[in-house]
Structures are given as C-alpha cells and as structure tokens.
Amino acid sequence: MSETPQKQSRLAQALLVVGGLLALMWALEGLDTVTANALDNFGIEPRQLSDLPNILWAPLLHFGWPHLISNSIPFLVLGVITYLSGPVKWLVTTVISAIFSGLAAWLLSPIGTITAGVSGVIFGYLTYLLVRGIFSRKIGQILISLVVFVLYGSVLLGVLPGTPGVSWLAHLGGAVGGVIAAWLLHNRSRDARPQQMAY
C-alpha cells in the first residue's frame, strides 16, 4: 500500500526536475531572443578545441522558438519516463547522451556549422528506454519499451541524414549514448547468473 505514495512522489520529483530543466531552456531562449541570438555562439563548432566545453551546455540552447518548441514535449515525456527509473539513472543517461551527442557533432559535422539543442539527449532517452529491458530482462521494462516504440519509434529516422539544417550526427551520437547508458546501468544478467562449477 505504501508504494503508491512513493510512486507519486517519484513522479512529482521527475516533473519538477525535468520540467525545471525545460523551464531553464525556455528562459535561455528568451535571453537569446533579447540579446539578438548571442547565446547561439555557445553551440558546438566542429574540431574547434575551444568549443569542446560547449558540449556540456549546448543541449540547453536552441536556434529559435520553433526549434525549442519541437523538442519540448519529447524531452519532457521521455525525460520523465527515464527519471522514473531513478534519479541517478536519469542523470547518467542524460550526461552520457549529451556527451556522445556533442562529441559526434564536434568530430564529424561539416566545418562551418554549429550544433545546439536537446534532441541528442532526447534520442539518448529514447534508445535507453527501448533497450534497457533487453539488458535487464525485466518484463515491465520491455513492455514500456514497446509503448515508447509505438509512440516515438518513427523519431529514430532522425539518426539518418536527410533533413537540411538538422544534425543527424548529434542524433546518432545521442542514440548511441542511450544504448551505452542502458548497458552500463542494466546489464546485470551475467553477474546474476549462478556460477557453474564442476566437481
């Protein structure tokens, strides 16, 4: 009986943390608007050593309101679902996805481009949720992955080149980061198996 209040508390915490991060993105976009897009300079420029630290905050920045609006609902929904796995798992998945997304953009994007936006992290959440059940072998997580795939599976097409002005490389890097996070956090099956000993 005590699980229901605990789950409600975790959901409230997830909405507060993920929603708060989203509110920060909106505030930064407002600041970017009134400063004539000055924050866009803190995106990731490929192969510029001085831009490597930008990998950490480029996910918080967007190129205009339409860009931010299109990312807001997927970030909130997938971020909250990921957070319900636990705050530490959410944090690890967020950081790994952001780093892999940013490194992919920094290493592989064409010179003369600049990358920003939270979509790489969104792809990380998506792949984390899709594959964690495979590593953990938990039926509940597998069922959640099926629901997530039905709702957001078509988004995975964003890891393919095609749409001008969209960094598919950052999407792909974030997706790889999500798989790595799921493997690191949920691959306990080998450790849990009883060791076979002959006698």
Automatic annotation (TrEMBL):
GO terms for biological process: proteolysis. Keywords: Hydrolase, Membrane, Protease, Transmembrane, Transmembrane helix. One of its GO terms (cellular component) is membrane. InterPro entries: Peptidase_S54_rhomboid_dom, Rhomboid-like_sf. It comes from the Bacteria. It is found in: Membrane. GO terms for molecular function: serine-type endopeptidase activity. The keyword Transmembrane helix applies. The keyword Lipid biosynthesis does not apply. The chain crosses the membrane at residues 12-28, 63-83, 90-108, 114-135, 142-160, 166-185. Residues 55-187 form the Peptidase S54 rhomboid domain. It is a multi-pass membrane protein. Belongs to the peptidase S54 family. This is Rhomboid family intramembrane serine protease. The lineage of its organism: Bacteria, Bacillati, Actinomycetota, Actinomycetes, Propionibacteriales.
